[in-house]
Amino acid sequence: MIIGQGVRFNAEKKKVGNYYSTPIYSFRMKHTACGGWIEIRTDPKNTAYVVVEGATKRDTGDDVVREGDVVIESAEEKEKRQSNAFAVLEGKVEEKRQLFSDKTRIEDLWVEKEKAWDDPYERSRKLRKVFRAERKVREKDEERSEGLKDKMSLGMELLPESEEDRRRAGFVDFGIGDGEMAVVKAKSKPLFAAAGPQRREGLQLELANNTRAAVDPFLDKGKSVATVAPLIKRKTASALVDYESD
To answer: Whole-prediction pTM value?
Structure first.
């Protein structure tokens, strides 16, 4: 089971020793998934953490020495190197090779810097020219954005236009024709069109089917219901009954 980086545990912290004047601490915790105990200790000598019990350290390749890294040797390694003449000679050759590489890199950077700034005035003039052109473009974009925000009453900052926005906007078709005439036609058209005989019969059939389906639970939903003529309730004259009062 892999414990991801950043997972927190409630650990028991205690001091288990010293490395010179630096204390060595132990952190003992219980894993909730497997129920096992894990103990990790600090390693001031190598500025690292050591897994003592219950787990193993995952090798991510962070301990590999890469180009440009400064390797700090321990006291034992320094003493062993000084006592071995071949190791001392090998170290001196490696240091000379590294010194030559660094010196060459610094010289190349210095030449590039001198080439770019051989004429400070001309270089400054070119930079100011580019800056003025970019500033005009930025001011134009800001003016267009502010106008759009005022027109659409937008209370948010608009991002700069991109090529993706232009491509997506090209897919939108707003129609062709006079917009004012379209508005006039829409206003002059009745909101509800007059229902013809066929539409009226269709509405009556749909209403009858819906009513029958809601009332009769044993109705087969696959069969249609015959057209039912709408019921018309007629008013009848009420008869008055004469009676004698006391």
So the answer is: 0.30
